[in-house]
Amino acid sequence: MPKVVQKLNDFVNLIDPDQNQIFNMSQEEAEALVASGDPEKVRKIEGNFAIVTKQDEQVYMARSIGRPMRYFMAKQTAGPLLIVADRIDDIHEYMKELGLEDQFRPDYTRMAPAHYVTRLDVVGCPDPNPVHKRYFTPERNKLNADLDMIGEAYVGAMERECEKWLDSIPKNEPIGVLFSGGIDSGSVFLTLYNLLLKRGESPSRLKAFTLSVNNGPDARQAHEFLDSLGLSMFLEVFEAELSDLDYKETIRVIEDYKARDVEAATMALTLCRKVRERYPDWVYLADGDGGDENLKSYPIEDNPELTIRSVLNNPLLYHEGWGVDKIKHSLTYSGGQSRGHVRVYATSSRYGFKGFSPYTLPNVIEISEGIPFIQLTDWKHEELYALKGDVVQRGVKAVTGLDMPVFPKRRMQHGVVDIKEFKKVFPENESEYRQYFHGLYK
C-alpha cells in the first residue's frame, strides 16, 4: 500500500514531499502558498514540486513539469473521497485496500496540469469540474535577436538552477548525467563540470552515463564529444543487449502509451537499471530533458497536426499541449511535456534515483519563451532546427568558456541502438502500446 502523507474523511494525500526539489523555501512555506490559491504567490516557489493542500471543502494542487500529480474522486457511503498521488497504480492500490477497486478505471484518473493552480471542491455528487488558474505566464519575444545574448541568457538561467540544485544536495554525493553527447545532455554536463570547478569542489564526483546496445551511435558520439574537450575520463558506457529493451515493462513504469515517450523511456529505464546494478548506493542523476521543448526542436513534419505557424504562434505548445481549455487537452494525461516528462521522472524513480532536469524549470523556460523565434527563423523549418545548436553552443561558451561540439540532432532511442535493430524491438503502431496499457487493469 502506498505511503499515506495526509488523511481526512474525504481526502487522502499520497504525494511524497521528499521527492520535491524546492530551492528557496521550506516545504511548509510552499504548501502555505499553494493553500492560498493565489497564482502569483505560487510562482514564487523555485524548483520542482508537486503540492496538494486542503482548506475546508477546497483542495488546491500545483505542480511543475518535473513532478507528476494525479487525482481520482471515489465514492464512499459517507460522501466523496479525493485521492491524490503521483502514480495511477498508487491510486489503484489504495482503492483496493479500501475495497473500492470496482470504481477504478485508469482513464478516470486526472493529471493536474503543470503551471496551474488547480482547485477542486470536494462536495459530492455530481462532482464539480476543477478550476485552473495559471501561475506561470512567460513573456514572449522579450529578447532581442542577438544570438550571443540569447545564448548567454538561456544557458546562464540553466546554470543558476544547477547551482541551486548543487546547494541542495550533499557535497560528497556523486552525480551522474544521462549523456548522449547531444546538445542538451552535453550542455548540462559541461555546466555542472564548470560549476564544480568554480565552487572549489572536485569534479571527480561527476560521471557521464551512456547506454549502448550493440555499439549504438550514441556511444561513439559521447566519446567524440568528451574527447574533443579532454574530458573523456568522465565517460562511462553501459553495454546492453537487445533483449534488455522491454517496452512492456516501460509502459508499466511510465503508465502511458505514447510511442515516442515509450521508446525514449525504454532506453532511460534500461540505463537506470544498469547504473543501479553497478552502483547500488548512487542517488543523484541529471539530464537534458526539456531542451527540445524549450527551443522548439522537434521535426514538425512528423506530426500531421502541426505547422510551423502553430508551433511558433502558440506559447508553451511543446510544454503543455494545446491548453487546458482546448478540446484536444487530455484530462487523464494533461499535454505536451506536462504529460511526457514522466518518461524521465518515473524511470529514474523506479530504481531509487533522484533526477534533476534543469531545462524543465520555469526560470529557464521563461528565457526560452522570450526568444524572438519568428524574427530569427522567418517561418523556415531548417532555420528553426538549426537555432538550438547555435544558441546553446554560444551560451555554453559564454558561461563556461568551453567550446561545446554540436552534432546533428538524433532522438535518444535512435542513438542507443541502430535503427534496424530498433525496429525489431518496438512496434510501428502505437495502438499496440495503448492496448497493452489498458490490459493492465482488466
TrEMBL record:
<protein>
    <submittedName>
        <fullName>Asparagine synthase</fullName>
    </submittedName>
</protein>
<dbReference type="InterPro" id="IPR014729">
    <property type="entry name" value="Rossmann-like_a/b/a_fold"/>
</dbReference>
<dbReference type="Pfam" id="PF00733">
    <property type="entry name" value="Asn_synthase"/>
</dbReference>
<dbReference type="GO" id="GO:0006529">
    <property type="term" value="P:asparagine biosynthetic process"/>
</dbReference>
<feature type="domain" description="Asparagine synthetase">
    <location>
        <begin position="173"/>
        <end position="309"/>
    </location>
</feature>
<dbReference type="GO" id="GO:0004066">
    <property type="term" value="F:asparagine synthase (glutamine-hydrolyzing) activity"/>
</dbReference>
<dbReference type="InterPro" id="IPR001962">
    <property type="entry name" value="Asn_synthase"/>
</dbReference>
